[in-house]
Structures are given as structure tokens and as C-alpha cells.
User: Fold these one by one.
Assistant:
Number 1:
Amino acid sequence: MFTLIKKEIEDHIAYFIGAAVLSAILIALLISAMYQPEPRDMPVFIGLSIPVIVILIVGFPAMGSTQMYTDRTRKISTLLSTLPVSRRQILCARIITGILAILTLLLPLTITMVILFPLFTPPIQMYLGLVWEIFAAAFLMAFACYCLGLLTGWNSSKIIPTLGGLVLTSILLPLIFVKGFGLHTVVILLLFIIASLMRTWHTFMSTSL
């Protein structure tokens, strides 16, 4: 499994580099915002989330669809299936790689916020709770977008997977603006992720390689 994950990371290293660069930029902007004359102005942090939303819309569906489309066109799973690995392991390694890419973007930013907030805000537990709520919602949204890419990527066309993922993502994304970062959003995203993964699993396991 470790070898499969390592291969997936090497094959899609550009997404990890992009996630790390974006995370570093957001951390720099966050630190800069905290040292402004009004560091407690929360709209500043909301504004900093806009680039993350853009990446969710474009980057993670593209990563998922690229993984599946590349697999189908280059017969990667066909080759791997000749080795002592199962389809289940191949797909699990692919999904774990996507999760690692999402964490590469979100985790450093979240840790930075957890460290900085107590230094610049009143000692109110609400702030740390809000940080983790945002992280949970952002992670689930990113993972849902990634799952959309996996779902649409197993297609013979090169255009349909990416466009399909973007269209479905644009429908899913307004959920946060309507429901916020609360429990309803988490439940809806979890149900959507489960349904997408089940469909992807069924397609991947039943399609002839």
C-alpha cells in the first residue's frame, strides 16, 4: 500500500506542490492580516478564504479526474493488476493520496490559525472552535470536490471529466454560503462523499481494465 501511495504522489506531484505553495501564500497573508491595526476584524479572515475556495472549485476535481482519466488511458491499473495488488488497494491508495493533497493545503493553515488566534484575540474558546469548524467544512468540501473528480474521471473523453467535475462542484459549493459551517453542512457533505465513493468504487471494481 505504501508503494502504491508513493507512486500516486510521484505521478501527481504537481498538485502537492501547488497545494504547498498556496498554503504558504495564505499563511503569509494571514500573518500579515493579524499584524494590521485592526487584527481582530474577522472579515479579513473570510476574505483570505477566497483563494482556497477557488482551489476547491478547480484544483481538487481536476486532481481526481486526472487520476482516473490517466488510469483509463494509460492502463495503469491493468499493469498494476499483474502485480500482487488488488483493485481495492489501488483505489484506496488513490483516495489516500487525494486526502494527503487536501491536508497539504489546509493543515498548515489551520495550525497557523490555532497558534495565532490566542495571541491576537481575547481568550474566548469560541475562536478556536470556529477555526476547527471552518477546517472541518473546508476539508469535507475539498474532499467532496475531489470525489466528484473521481466520479467523472472514469470517462473516455478528456474534456468531460474536468468540465463535469467543475459543473457539479459549482452546484455543491453554494452549500457553505447557504448553510454556513455548521452541522447541517457536515452531514450533507458526508452523505454526498459516501454516495460518490460508493459509485466510484462500484464503477472501478466492475469495469473491465
Note: The chain has ten helices and no strands.
Number 2:
Amino acid sequence: MKLLTPGFALMLAAAWGCSGGAEIPPVELGGSTGARLMNGQARTPAEAYDNAYALLTRSHYNVRRNLDTRGQNQLGAREAMAQIIRCLETMKSCVPAGNQVPFDPYIARYSGWLTDLEKGTWGGAFLTDFERNEREVKSNFHPSNEQFLTEFPGAKPEAPPVKPADSPLISDNVEVPATPRSPGLESPRPAPEAPGVDPVVTLRLLYRSWSTAHDELIAAYRARIPCKGRYDEVLQSLRLLKEKHAGDKAAKLQIYIDYYADVGEKTRGFCALPEKTTEKDILDELDVAARVIRKEFNPDR
């Protein structure tokens, strides 16, 4: 097994100018089960698929940005291309065997482009073909079109705990004397909510704020009216929601904060369509973020 550690991923991100360390989660490569995310955020193949799909937009953008003639970064372009391949391998490993075949031509195509970047032989209509391929991948492998495995390949059921044999010489109730701690060794504790504030209600309010802002953003975009206010509310509500979480939950929210930012950037604040992109393409991308956030962060689920 080859493992890209978070530290190495951050070095790669620094090398090609990415923003945010959550962009490149570690990926397990090789073996009979293909590849899957190893960052602990994905508890099921469906979640791993969603996470990998969400990274495709930023990865494609980074290939194009790093090949811009005004400041080319060949290393950055190669690493972004390699990440696309890892994402597709992850997505492939999360669907049943009968649904994996369509991924192979795209993985082969991106692998060929990676070889061209490594040799410096890319050029001609490469960027045009690359953009067309991105649209195909996002359309053909949208999460709403897929069926997912119920568990990761090779997952083993957890063995039940073994109950120790009863012994008349051992008491079940063993009292361990408390050891006084030095004040300097006390474990840090999270700051309590302000008096009178219910943390569950706070989460519900922030979640509903984001959900409403997202729906209003979609409505404004479809109606072709200014979207900046709704877009800002989406990002701000997600940032506040992230502050109420830690660990994997906070990391996942950061992925989707960046995801919204990528969509906003390439549409110039939802005021323009990128070349060869339709309104439906943008709405489909926004749907991916909303589907994951509503599944993972709705406090009423």
C-alpha cells in the first residue's frame, strides 16, 4: 500500500499554490480494491465518492491555472492531474464492479495527459480537450447517477468483545484512587456556550441559515438576478457552522466552503458562464454540495 500522508499532501499543495490543506486528503493506492480516501471523513463508499467528486472542480482548475502562460508551474499541473486520477480511482472503487468499466477510459486518458505533462509534450488542442473531458466526467459520474457499495471493499466485520471469564477473586467494581493533576497538565476543554444558549439550537439555526441561503442562491441564479448577497450568506453561514465542529466534520465543511468558492470564482460571482458550460452544469455542481451538507449536518436527522 502506498499512502500519501497529510504532511506530504500539504507540501504538494504548497508547491502548486493551492489554498487550504483540506484539498488533498490521503488516498490508499494499489491492491485488489483500487483506491479510497484515507482521511477518516468517509464512513461509507457513498461519502467517499461525494468527497472525491467534489475535488474534481478544484483539480481541473489547478491544471489550467498552472499551465497559464503568464506563470507556468509544471509541477503544480502534474500534481493536479495526478489528483484527478486519484479521485476517479476512488470513485471507481466505491461503485459495484458492473459500474466500474466506464471509469477506465477516462482514467487512461488522464494518465496519458499526465505522461505528456511529465515529458513536456502537451500542447495543441490539449486545453480544449481537457475542458471538454471535465464536462463529460462531471456529467457522466454525477453522484445522483450512481449506485454505491454498502461498505468499502475488503471491510471486515468488527469482532464482538470477548467477555472475561468470571472469577470469584476479582471484583467487578474496582476503585482506582484519583491522582491529583498538576494545573499545567490539565487537558484543554472547549469553551462553553454563552449562558442561556442551547448548542443544539445554535447548530439548527446555522444549518437553516445555510439551507435557506443556498435555496435563495439557486433561485436568484435561475432568475438571472444579482447573486452576491445570497452567495456571501452561504459562505458565511458555512464558516460559522464550521466553528461549531471539530476534526473530520470541520474538515469536510472546509472542503465545501472551498467548493462554493470555486464555483463562485469561475462564474465571476454567478454573473457569467464559463466557456462551454451550461447553467445546468453549475446547478448540478451546487446540488452536489447541498446534498452532502444536508445529509451530514442536518441536526434534525
Note: Residues 198-297 form one domain.
Number 3:
Amino acid sequence: MKQSFPYNLKKGIIFVGLASLPLFSGCEKDKPEPSQPQKHNVELVYGTNPNTQWQNISMDTIYKYNADPKVDTIFMIPEQTDQYATLSANGCRTVIDLLRPRHNLNPNKVFGKGDLVLNSGITNNHPDIVRFFADTLRYNVRN
């Protein structure tokens, strides 16, 4: 005569076997992922008076934030949107010569932000200046 396990014992073995599957199959998924630092943006406001002119966006400051892996984007924000409104083309080119190396330090990370007013003579007659401020630095240029 053939001996068989009692029915309840068979059910118990099957239940324990099935119940333990998730314990062994999920081991790889339970490993904690290395935490990524929370990225943030830096906003550097610069103005036209001697106290705020270029100190807030000095090359050392841009280098420091560019090297920080927690910084996603560095924004250069004019203190007054109309601070360049009275500049001539030569005056704008002087400002461009100061802003370009800051942007070029990391063209994927350093930008302008906000509105920037240029006089209508610049916006109408000097597309290269407008392109730098609007396209390269991403200011909202208006007159």
C-alpha cells in the first residue's frame, strides 16, 4: 500500500514554500540606492553701483558654484531691469566682454535670468548684441 502525506501537511508545505518566495526573490530590489544630492539653482544679483556691480558675479564666485555638484544652474540677474537702457553699442559690448567669460565657464550651467531693457537703437540696429543677451544668456530683452 502506498503511503501519502496527510492532506493538511501537504497544504502546509505548499503554503510555507509559496509564502517564502517573496523573501528570497526580492533581495536585489531591497538594496538602498545611493542618495543623490538635492540640486538647486543659485541666483547672483548684480547691479550698477559700486557695492553690487560685479562683486556678486565675480569669476571666483562663478568658479565656486560651478564646482559644486549640488548647484544645477547659476543665474546672473540684473539688479535693475533697465540698468543698461541708456548704454550705447560700445557700452553694451563692454558689458558683453564682462559677461561672456562667466557664461563660457560653463555654457550649460551659467545664464542670465529676468528682463533686460536695452534702448531701441540697440534692439533695432545691433542684432549681435541682442542675440548675446537674449539667445546666449537667455535674458528677456525688451526696449
Note: The chain is about 45% helix and 15% strand.
Number 4:
Amino acid sequence: MRGAPRPDRAVILVVSVLAAALLAGCLGSLPHDRPTRSVVLAPGAAFDLPLHESRPHWLMRDLPRWCGAAEARWGGDPEDRAVLTTRAVRFRDDNAAARALDKLTPEYLAIVFRDRIAGGPTPVDYPMPLPGDEAKADEYDVRLPPDLAAQLRLTGQFLAVRSGKALILTESIGLPPDELVPAVERMIEVAATAQDGC
């Protein structure tokens, strides 16, 4: 007796492409906002972590006066010593960016990034002065696979910094303050050149 026929790879590919197109149509596409992309890529020379990913992002898209957002991930592979995810969001004015920073509470972060958070986040006093117009820091317990979670605890950190119309959110594990702060400063420098237009 023969089993059910196996679907051809071409059929699987076509169905996957159609499903992705349908999903993109339902969710809408994210704008490729060059200024926010340049901000998240700015820390490239600040440390020895390889860039693994860069893309448009949805962060705070539901807020008024949102222009665009981008994300980049540095490190995070088994051979890398740390991981840093940089995110930048641009708004049409300083007030909208300030309201967005206010919304970045531990509760908001816990909901938005719940797939990575096992406990927290909890506000912390950062050990170095943070740049920008306003800033805050939170720490959280990193969600690990159950077999690792029983023997290992990792702490992650969110830094949120507003500079003019830009909001910068970094998420890091294993990156010391003396490396992270210069990376954020570089992002702020680039954000200062991207304050016009939307």
C-alpha cells in the first residue's frame, strides 16, 4: 500500500511565497527609512562584533507622528563574545519622541519583547553617564531553553535614549558599559544629522 504522495518542493515554495505575500498584505509593509538605518549601523567600528542582520522594524509604529524604525543585530552567534541589538525610531517632532520614551516602561518592554524575557525588566541606575536628552536603563533575565535555564542565568540590558526626534533602544548581553556608551554616542551623532523630514 502506498502512502500519501509527498508534495513537490516547487509546490511548497509557491505556497510559502503566496503565504508570505498574503501575510505582508495583511500586516502592511515597513518603510525603509534610510536615516534610522544609518543610526542603527553607526556603531559598526566601535567594537569587534560582526553585523549579522539589519532591517526595517515595527517598534512604536502605533504611536502618532512615527516616521520609521530600523534594527541591527551585532554578535550573538556562539563564537561571538556578546550580542547587541540596536534599534532607532524617528518621529516628526521632539515631543512625540519624548512621549515614546515615556512609553518604554518595564511593563511595555516585557510585553513587546516577551519572547526574550524570562523575568523583569527592572529599572537600574546605569554605572556611567548616558548621553542624549533623556535616558533610562532596565535589566532583565534572558529567556533560555529549559535545559540551559536550569544551570545558567543570563542578564540582558535595555538602554533607551532620546536625542531630539530620535529614540534609540539598545538591547545587549555581555557588552560592558565602556563599550556600549561610545556606541550609543556614535548613534546619537548620526541621529543628529537625521532630524529633518519624515
Note: Confidence is low (pLDDT under 50) at residues 1-27.
